[in-house]
Design a protein that fits this description.
The protein is α+β, with helices and mostly antiparallel strands. It folds into 2 domains: 41 residues, no CATH class; 55 residues, 2,3-Dihydroxybiphenyl 1,2-Dioxygenase, domain 1, CATH 3.10.180. The chain has 2 helices and 7 strands, in the order αββββαβββ. Strands 4-7-6-5 form a 4-stranded mixed β-sheet, covered by helices on one side. A 3-stranded antiparallel β-sheet has the order 1-2-3, with helices on one face. A hairpin with a 5-residue loop joins strand 6 and strand 7.
């Protein structure tokens, strides 16, 4: 993560998740629901550079139709890559955070 304020704003205001803890520019915990916490922190000296391939991949499950979630996030400025894919009963929609880290939405067959 290269800019804590920008990252926290993206995950809370844009994605609608809740900020759990913020410790200045050293750490932030984002409550993604169902016990999932996302830890945001600056890259350390031996960490992959934020936004480089393999530095992060996060899947966020949705509990409502993914098409509506995509429309809501697009209205907040999120850009999705390509069209949604259907992977064996799970629909996926891919996008990145402001640092270029890979994220995706996942809707199982029961949402």
């Amino acid at each position: 993560m290269s800019d804590m304020d920008r990252a926290v704003k993206f995950y809370t205001e844009t994605l609608g998740l809740r900020l759990d803890v913020r410790a200045g520019n050293h750490w932030a915990s984002i409550d993604a629901g169902d016990g999932l916490l996302l830890g945001l922190h600056p890259a350390g000296p031996h960490s992959p550079v934020p936004g480089t391939a393999g530095s992060i991949s996060v899947g966020l499950g949705v509990d409502e139709p993914i098409d509506g979630v995509v429309r809501t996030l697009e209205s907040r400025g999120v850009v999705f890559r390509g069209s949604m894919s259907d992977g064996g009963g799970v629909r996926l929609a891919f996008f990145t955070d402001p640092d270029g880290n890979e994220l995706y939405l996942a809707q199982s067959g029961n949402a």
